[in-house]
């Protein structure tokens, strides 16, 4: 009976009810879309960095990620990779060797990171091959050819076919020196990487830096982000137990680049503050609606109490009214939010003039919102909870009504 009466009561003033419904629906729609947009942005940032730099997982010597010393090498990468092929959820893997060096052109000298890669396997795991803006990608037969980051090429004033002198320290402590020819210039979308990166064939790197078959990183790509932790645990059981200074560890992308996680957390924290403000504004509009209902129906409530209706029953009816109104608005908002998000995910959202600013964080020029159960329900659920909490005030107020005074109200 209370539910039926509550449904009829909320439609006593159709205009006010519709406006309140639309306010709730708009807030929920905005929350669904904005959360999906944020998650899509984070996914794009992670994918960009994972594909261009870290992979989902890396096997390396303990401490190498914080102190890139040449002697901290994986000594038998082929034997370890053979074991990795038997594990599920591993899509691709490759090996890399790194050496910090002085890079000199005819006009300038800069410090940079020279990375030895297997061109064929790297192309399957990394997006660098697809980000070549000038020239060509490395081939298996190349020896002294190199790929150079666009910003590094700009700083060094070098172009395709120009020579690049490399001077660094080899693994055995000797001087590593060579002259490379620029075969391609890439733009990964991560400015920090494009400002320092040079890639050369692994065989040439092994020879120049006297690596003796060793590498610094085994880079692994999983079939999904959700399987990264599971795969890390499986790989850890395969790693040999060696001396602490030579012990191998398996690290995830989030451990390799903690700064990215911190950036995401800061952005999400700012977003949550905005969403809470929005929800509180909507909640007060709901509370205002029901306080108005209590004042307008004071005479009615007084009469009902006078003829024997219990105040608790009236409070329950008001809570039903609030719940019905909120649920209808939330469901409408979720439907509209999902529809808008799906449309935006299909067409993409260009960033326009902000592209240059956000490129340094690895965000591409077009963002596609990522709709999920969490993004579709988290915001509307909080809206429902807070609005029901605000509806408690008019429900409690009814319990304190004096029937005689209430019946005298106009």
Give a brief outline of the structure.
This protein is α+β, with helices and mostly antiparallel strands and 410 residues long. It has helices spanning 2-10, 14-54, 77-84, 119-125, 150-156, 191-194, 202-208, 228-236, 253-256, 258-296, 298-306, 311-347, 355-359, 373-399, 403-408, and strands spanning 57-61, 90-104, 109-117, 132-135, 145-149, 163-169, 175-186, 197-201, 217-222, 248-252, 349-350, 366-367.
Write a structural description.
The protein is of the alpha+beta class and 410 residues long. Helix content is 53%, strand content 19%. The chain has helices at residues 2-10, 14-54, 77-84, 119-125, 150-156, 191-194, 202-208, 228-236, 253-256, 258-296, 298-306, 311-347, 355-359, 373-399, 403-408; strands at residues 57-61, 90-104, 109-117, 132-135, 145-149, 163-169, 175-186, 197-201, 217-222, 248-252, 349-350, 366-367. The strands form 2 sheets. The chain has a 6-stranded mixed beta barrel, surrounded by 4 helices. A two-stranded antiparallel ribbon has the order 11-12. The radius of gyration is 31 Å and the shape is elongated. The chain starts with a helix and ends with a helix. 38% of the residues are buried.
What is the number of helices?
Answer: 15
Overall geometric form: elongated
H/E element order? HHEHEEHEEHEEHEHEHEHHHHEHEHH
Q: Low-confidence spans: pLDDT under 50, at least 5 residues? A: none
- As laid out across the biggest beta sheet, the strand order is 2-3-8-5-7-6
End-to-end separation: 27 Å
Helix/strand/pairing category: alpha+beta
Rg, Cα atoms, Å = 31 Å
Measured as a percent range, the helix fraction is 40-55%
Q: How large is the share of residues in beta strands?
A: 15-25%
Query: How many β-strands, per DSSP?
Result: 12
User: Average pLDDT, to the nearest integer?
Assistant: 83
Largest sheet: 6 strands, mixed, barrel
């Amino acid at each position: 009976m209370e539910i039926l009466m509550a449904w009829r009561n909320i439609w006593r003033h159709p205009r006010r009810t519709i406006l309140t419904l639309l306010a709730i629906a708009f807030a929920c729609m905005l929350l669904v879309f904005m959360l999906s947009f944020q998650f899509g942005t984070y996914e794009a940032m992670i994918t960009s960095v994972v594909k261009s730099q870290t992979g989902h997982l890396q096997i390396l010597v303990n401490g190498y990620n914080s102190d890139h010393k040449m002697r901290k090498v994986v000594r038998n990468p082929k034997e370890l990779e053979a074991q990795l092929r038997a594990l599920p959820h591993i899509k691709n893997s490759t090996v890399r060797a790194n050496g910090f060096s002085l890079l000199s052109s005819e006009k300038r000298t800069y410090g940079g990171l020279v990375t030895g890669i297997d061109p064929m396997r790297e192309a399957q795991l990394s997006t660098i091959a697809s980000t070549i803006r000038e020239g060509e990608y490395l081939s298996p037969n190349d020896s002294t050819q190199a790929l150079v980051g666009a910003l590094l090429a700009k700083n060094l004033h070098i172009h395709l076919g120009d020579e690049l002198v490399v001077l660094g320290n080899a693994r055995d402590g000797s001087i590593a020196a060579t002259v490379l020819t620029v075969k391609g210039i890439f733009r990964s979308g991560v400015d920090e990487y494009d400002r320092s990166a040079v890639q050369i064939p692994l065989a040439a790197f092994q020879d120049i830096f006297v690596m003796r078959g060793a590498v610094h990183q085994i880079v692994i790509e999983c079939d999904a982000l959700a399987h990264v932790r599971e795969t890390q645990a499986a790989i850890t059981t395969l790693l040999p137990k060696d001396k602490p200074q030579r012990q191998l560890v398996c690290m995830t992308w989030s451990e390799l680049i903690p700064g990215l996680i911190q950036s995401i957390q800061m952005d999400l924290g700012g977003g949550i503050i905005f969403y809470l403000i929005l929800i509180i504004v909507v909640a007060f509009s709901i509370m205002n609606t029901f306080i108005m209902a209590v004042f307008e129906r004071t005479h009615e409530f007084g009469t009902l109490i006078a003829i024997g209706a219990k105040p608790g029953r009236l409070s329950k009816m008001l809570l039903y009214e609030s719940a019905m109104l909120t649920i209808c608005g939330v469901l409408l908002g979720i439907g509209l939010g999902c529809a808008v998000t799906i449309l935006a995910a299909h067409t993409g959202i260009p960033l326009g003039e902000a592209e240059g600013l956000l490129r340094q964080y690895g965000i591409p020029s077009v963002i596609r919102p990522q709709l999920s159960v969490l993004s579709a329900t988290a915001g509307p659920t909080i809206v429902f909870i807070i609005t029901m909490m605000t509806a408690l005030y008019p429900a409690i107020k009814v319990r304190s009504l004096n029937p005689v005074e209430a019946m005298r109200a106009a």
